Amino acid sequence: MSTDSPETELSAQSKPAGISDYPETSDDLIASDQLGLAELAEVDLYQKREKIYTRRIEGFFQRIRLYTGWPLLLAYFLLPWMQIDGRQALLFDMPARKFYVFWFTFWPQDFPLLAWLMIIAAFGLFAITNFAGRVWCGYTCPQTVWTAIYMWVEQITEGDRNKRIKLDKQPSSLGKFIKKFFKHSMWFGFAFLTGFTFIAYFTPAKTMLVEFFTASDALWVYAWVLFFTLATYLNAGYLREQVCMYMCPYARFQSAMFDSDTMVVSYDEARGEPRGSRKKTEDYRAQGKGDCIDCELCVQVCPTGIDIREGLQYQCITCALCIDACDSVMDKMGYPRGLVRYTTKTNLAGGKTRILRPKIVGYSFIILIMTGLFLFTIGTRDPLRLDVIRDRADLYDVAADGSIENVYELRVLNMAEHPADFELSLVGLEQYIWLGPQQVSVGSGDTAIYPVRIQVPADQIDIAVQEIQFEVVSTEQQNISAISESRFIGPFN
User: Fold this and answer.
1) Is the pTM of this model over 0.85?
2) 177, 191, 369, 381: which could form a disulfide with 233 (CB 3.0–4.6 Å)?
3) What is the C-alpha to C-alpha distance for residues 466 and 461, in angstroms, rounded to an integer?
4) 321-333 and 60-78 helices cross at what angle (nearest 10)?
5) Per-residue model confidence as pLDDT tens digits over 318-344
6) Which among 225, 233, 68, 224 is positioned nearest to 146, based on CA atoms?
């Protein structure tokens, strides 16, 4: 017979299953609350970043990254110093509103072409991502290239991975200060070179080189160089993988472009599991083990600190460091390469990957059409533009002889690299008198404004509003011309 009171029995029945230390008293409740707060404290959405110490590794894919990264790096630093036709090959001259791109000169009116080019690039990125995953991130993204250089500086100043870990744990000393000083000096020097070069794309590089170091340059130049120097120093030196994981939107929307036939870095779980350490001479198959020796070298070389064996993750930038690391271990163990490799989900499941897929075909078709139209527009673009603004203060004026008069403002933009002479004319009226200049000269890159008065005899006006066209034609090259539409307004009967 139980001696417990009904209250005690109810309390015992009310305990959740599996909890033996359910609080019975107020003291227990206080202790329970403290335990719950401690557990909640472990779930921190703003956790402090844990520094990632990457191990240096060499291999086939790292050589590819070297061959793709260095040309882009050299192009970035050398292009501002190239000259074409006596001017900087790549210069975005904001005060003059001229944008020199090799043999072409673009103007603010050409911004739709820039938007067009960005759309083509976006579809190209979508197509590449659907086919081969985030290869842009792993091989050519500036954040990846610059971070790799900063990691290389760490290795030559502070040593390999284990030495860097020990150095950070050591107390302050002269030796530690010297190593850190050299590392940060090289970081800041490369960041300054990056910021200076970036601004050289927006102001003549040779002039800037002289004026900057003689303290005679504009204040905005020093401000922007400092800004991009600090941005590079922080992004490549400290933020690193956080830029890829949290700041770059590409990591978030890439899943919308992936499918089961997308080529990504993958771990062959069927071959590698169950993982475990072993000696090279052991018959690990007899022990029921897979090819993975659980060395965690793939984790140690990953710049974002993930374990590829846990499956595809949005943090993976497809840099293939884990592939080269795993292949080096497989070579030492005498196992076949490819435990971690570029493959598709379909291949891992035993199927056959489809290369020509609806997304690939669609993206390729759009890119082909848009690129063709873009090149055609560039090739047939006239370096001349005409804008007509009709005087809206009065619908029309009546001249002394009874003629109807409209006033216009003609703006001629010469986008050629040299001054030119032009002839202005009007189409759409049978009889009219042109009051204003018709033979004009416009300098290179200049916009000339000409007021023009058009008079039409009153008996020649059949309708109140008549569509007309103003035309400007080069006197040297008849194929260079521009047309702008307007209206001639007369009395309403």
Assistant:
1) no
2) 191
3) 9
4) 150
5) 899 999 999 999 999 999 999 999 999
6) 233
